[in-house]
Amino acid sequence: MKTLIGFTTLFLSLVTFEMPSARAAEFRSICSGAWDNASTWDCASGGTPQAGDTAIVRSNDNVTISANRSVDSLTVESGGILTIDGCKLTILDSGGLTVNGSVTVKTNSEMDLCGGGTVVINGIVILDGDTAELSVTDYDLVIDGSGEVLGKSDSARFNIDGDIAVTLTTKLIVGGAMEIRGLAGEVHAGKLVNNGLVEAHNPGGGSILLLDRGLYGGIGVYAATTSGSVLRFRSGTATAGMGADFEVKNGGLLKVESNISTTGKLRKMSGSGSKIRVGRASSIKFNQ
User: How confident is the model over 193-228, as pLDDT tens digits?
Assistant: First the structure.
């Protein structure tokens, strides 16, 4: 009996040792519906996407999330739609976010990326509502292809603590407030390479694009194009090889509190109330 017990104990130990550990699941949408409805998803484990999982919103599916949730990575395929309505979606891992379709962040909602890695926007991300927010920490944000990040509300907020690349045909358009902040003491943190359009634009006024303590380059356009819209380079910003053009029109304001130098030009300065304001010990130099 003792031998049998010993053998059984050893056998169970071996079985326990050989058991595979739990693995994160991949969830693919199979229809339009609620994030928290298991019938929206195809996954061998069943259920709905949770922290540690990967979620994929497939083409032609429209998925709405209405309660705070976390996943490790999220992909929205071309033609797919994800709506974040009244809650916060957190993406935790370096798997990051890829948007080839559309993501809309509604009123009192937030998409928070905090795991490090790369966010690739080939589709569109819309902050559409009061206090809608996109927070990116320790990620690189790449707006590529025909990608667009659009803040439509006066109080929409972009909080970026990482590098941003805006490629040739893309747009980063701010209708609310945007802060691009690097980490103190690191000159390359908060790098913005703009080869497309970075614009403070809000027909209702009050749009602020704040560039702070970063390194800014590229050959695109920086613009403040509506009354009350402010494109602000705050103290500590630096430019290296910048070839960007600037536009200030229709009552927009370019506010310089640092030393900006570009091989580009002031492409347009027009409209009543349009201004360039350069602070004490600051400068802006155009090649024109």
Answer: 778 788 877 666 566 777 766 677 788 888 888 888
With CA atoms as reference, report the closest residue to 135 among 177, 171, 81. 177
**253, β-bridge pairs:** 230, 275
Taken in order 75, 134, 152, 120, the sign of the CA dihedral is negative
How far is 249 from 279, CA to CA, in rounded Å?
A: 20
Name 9's Cβ contacts closer than 8 Å, sequence gap at least 6: none
- Residue 26: CB atoms within 10 Å: 16
Beta-carbon count within 10 A of 11 CB: 10
| Gap between the Cα atoms of 79 and 62, Å rounded | 9
End-to-end CA gap in the chain: 96
Amino acid 32 reads S
Q: Give the per-residue pLDDT at 205.
A: 57
For 140, phi then psi, to 5°, come to -100, 130
Nearest CA-CA partner of 204 in 223, 229, 222, 171: 229
Q: Please write down the HEC assignment for all residues of 38-57.
A: HHHEECCCCCCCCCCCEEEE
What residues form DSSP beta bridges with 161? Answer: 137
Half-sphere exposure of 236 (CA within 13 A, CB side): 17
State pTM to two decimals.
0.74
Q: How far is residue 143 from each of residues 130, 150, 166, 274, measured CA to CA in Å? A: 23, 11, 5, 28
- Tokens for 254? 């370019």
Encoded tokens for 5: 């017990």
